[in-house]
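debug: dumping io for the single-chain case to check the tokenizer round-trip. Nothing else runs in this session.
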Amino acid sequence: MAIDSLRKVERRQRLSPNCQLVVKKARPEPGVSDAEQKIMGISGCDGDSNSTLLKSVSQKNIPQKLEVPMYKHQVLLLRRELKGTEVMEADWEQMRLARTSGS
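debug: decoded output
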């Protein structure tokens, strides 16, 4: 598997980011939080998306997805970095890519 991955890099074949963060539990925090800064730094998404996501999770206690495609290593790093912030539980999942039908 590693050899195949190296060959793809040599041929400049790259996979698109296909994972996303799922925040399952979060405590409400006023203002810009540590978690928001970490999410912005690793995912590159804007602050409005972060604050909306965290507020929605903390108010409704319903898992929410950060709709920003990331590579698996980015999501795993972000999940690790969010430990100790107001995000109490986070996970990741592979995005379902829309299938295009041939015409």
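debug: round-trip ok. The longest strand covers residues 19-26.
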